[in-house]
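@channel sequence for tomorrow's demo:
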Amino acid sequence: MRIKWKWIWAIWLVTVIILSLMPVNPSMQPRMLSGIKHLDKVVHFIMYLVLSFTMLKFLKEKKVRHSIWWVLLFCIILGVAIEFIQNTKMINRNFDIADIIANIIGTFVGAIIFRYI
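structure tokens (generated this afternoon):
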């Protein structure tokens, strides 16, 4: 059975958007994770690594030219847009430039992994 990267990417994209726009409740975080410094940056990095990798796999199936550029553009714009949306009164989250940096680094690492696998 062949992997359908389109669906994996689409599900992951929706997951990233939902998790990024959900209100944060620190009491829901397990105690054993509460002491890990910058854990949220690691989560951002991993989310965008997986997002860029799965999108590249999907675009490869579709034989899209210059797919790496499209993925970099899409993921960076998405990450920045979500941070600005988090800064609105509708969502109980905060804008954080470090989150954008973690998203961008994760995007590039996902593209690099895709390139060399």
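heads up for whoever presents: Residues 7-18+37-116 form one domain.
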